[in-house]
């Protein structure tokens, strides 16, 4: 039988106080017993009968009333028998009610002492039959309520064990989470410091790349200028070759042509000197680029290869320029020789023609080397431009990473604070579970006090 009740905190406290007094034996029901209340029902009925008969006799004598049954013996006997019968019936009724009252008292004492294992007899209940029925109903109600109380106490204990186990796991998980948070916070700090160092190194590298790009622009400009000089020299050598071939038909103009050729050899000497200076600067720049690429590590391997090629080209250009310079010196000597020996004939002119062919070949080499140097310088310039763009992108990404690391540190701090708050919450839950366990034990002690 299910019994559901709602009690206030005050009622629960009063019930607990009463229960404690009952267990200690200090509780006694409040009664207003007097002298009459202490008499039994039979005694009261007997007193009422005697008083009634006495009053009846006194009343008849006092008022001189002539009663029929007093003058007639048979009537007197009949009246006495009838009075005795009625009195006996009343006494038996009172005795029956007395037994029912004792049953009621016994049942109530059992209920009061927590003994619910008794049978309530409803037959011959007399005037207390309704009370006995209520006692039996109350007994069933108490049995159902105590059974439910014991069951609920067992369920509460089971739930407490599960909650305790879960809270222990949660507590361990929060401890591990706290350790992980602290480790993550330390890692984020170290990562942030490392990113700051990387950002500074990348900034320095970006400055270095900008300097290399400026130098490569200078090299490109100088290589373009050298190419233009070489192209001019090639054109002039072609013109000189044409004019030299015309010397056969213009023998009388040979002297002027040779003078002009002497001036052109001076220009060629200047060009070779310029080429030599450019090649030396190019060689120096390639050496600097090799040093800077070596500092850059793996990222500068491409620059090292290009710098090596530029150095080779510079050495070749320097070598060719020296050869041209030597050749020009020789050519000048031969021109002077030709001035003095011009009249020796066209045979010497043919020799000069062959020498000019050699000069043209060398000029082609110079032009080719100058063109290759120009192309290499353009490649270096393009590479440095791309590297500058990439380094700028890397710097931008590093700034984003730093911002993200700052946000991550803030999030880690918030999570650590939340974990600490949750640890306090778990501690409060553990305290509540402990209190609930105590309440369950008290429920057990209350429930097992009853015998049913």
UniProtKB/TrEMBL annotation:
<keyword id="KW-0807">Transducer</keyword>
<dbReference type="GO" id="GO:0016020">
    <property type="term" value="C:membrane"/>
</dbReference>
<dbReference type="GO" id="GO:0007165">
    <property type="term" value="P:signal transduction"/>
</dbReference>
<dbReference type="InterPro" id="IPR004089">
    <property type="entry name" value="MCPsignal_dom"/>
</dbReference>
<dbReference type="Pfam" id="PF00015">
    <property type="entry name" value="MCPsignal"/>
</dbReference>
<feature type="transmembrane region" description="Helical">
    <location>
        <begin position="65"/>
        <end position="92"/>
    </location>
</feature>
<keyword id="KW-0812">Transmembrane</keyword>
<keyword id="KW-1133">Transmembrane helix</keyword>
<protein>
    <submittedName>
        <fullName>Methyl-accepting chemotaxis protein signaling domain protein</fullName>
    </submittedName>
</protein>
<feature type="domain" description="Methyl-accepting transducer">
    <location>
        <begin position="166"/>
        <end position="402"/>
    </location>
</feature>
<keyword id="KW-0472">Membrane</keyword>
<feature type="transmembrane region" description="Helical">
    <location>
        <begin position="35"/>
        <end position="59"/>
    </location>
</feature>
């Amino acid at each position: 039988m299910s019994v559901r009740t709602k009690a206030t905190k005050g009622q629960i406290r009063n019930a607990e106080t009463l229960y404690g007094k009952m267990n200690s034996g200090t509780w006694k029901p409040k009664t207003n017993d007097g002298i009459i209340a202490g008499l039994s029902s039979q005694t009261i009925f007997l007193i009422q009968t005697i008083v009634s008969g006495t009053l009846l006799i006194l009343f008849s004598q006092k008022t001189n009333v002539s009663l029929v049954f007093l003058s007639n013996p048979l009537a007197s006997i009949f009246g006495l028998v009838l009075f005795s019968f009625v009195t006996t019936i009343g006494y038996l009724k009172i005795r029956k009610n007395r037994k029912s009252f004792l049953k009621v008292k016994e049942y109530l004492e059992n209920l009061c002492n927590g003994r619910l294992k008794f049978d309530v007899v409803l037959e011959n209940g007399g005037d207390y039959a309704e009370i006995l029925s209520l006692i039996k109903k109350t007994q069933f109600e108490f049995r159902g309520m105590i059974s439910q109380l014991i069951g609920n106490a067992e369920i509460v204990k089971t739930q407490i064990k599960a909650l305790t186990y879960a809270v222990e796991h949660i507590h361990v998980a929060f401890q591990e989470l706290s350790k992980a948070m602290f480790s993550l916070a330390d890692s984020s700090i170290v990562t942030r410091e490392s990113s700051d160092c990387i950002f500074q190194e990348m900034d320095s590298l970006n400055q270095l790349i900008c300097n290399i790009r400026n130098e490569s622009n200078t090299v490109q400009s100088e290589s373009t200028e050298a190419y233009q000089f070489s192209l001019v020299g090639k054109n002039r050598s072609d013109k000189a070759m044409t004019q030299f071939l015309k010397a056969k038909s213009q023998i009388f103009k040979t002297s002027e042509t040779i003078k002009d050729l002497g001036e052109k050899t001076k220009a060629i000497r200047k060009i070779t000197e310029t080429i030599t200076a450019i090649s030396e600067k190019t060689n120096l720049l390639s050496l600097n680029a090799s040093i800077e690429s070596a500092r850059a590590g793996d990222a500068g391997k491409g620059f090292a290869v290009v710098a090596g090629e530029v150095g080779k080209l510079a050495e070749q250009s320097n070598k060719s320029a020296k050869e041209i310079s030597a050749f020009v010196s020789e050519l000048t000597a031969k021109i002077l020789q030709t001035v003095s020996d011009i009249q020796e004939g066209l045979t010497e002119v043919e020799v000069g023609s062959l020498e000019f062919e050699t000069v043209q070949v060398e000029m082609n080499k110079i032009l080719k080397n100058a063109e290759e140097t120009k192309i290499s310088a353009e490649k270096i310039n393009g590479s440095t431009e791309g590297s500058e763009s990439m380094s700028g992108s890397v710097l931008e990404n590093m700034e984003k990473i730093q911002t993200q690391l700052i946000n991550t540190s803030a999030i880690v701090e918030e999570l650590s604070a939340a974990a600490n708050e949750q640890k306090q919450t778990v501690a409060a839950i553990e305290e509540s579970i402990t209190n609930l366990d105590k309440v369950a034990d008290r429920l057990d002690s209350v429930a097992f006090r009853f015998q049913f």
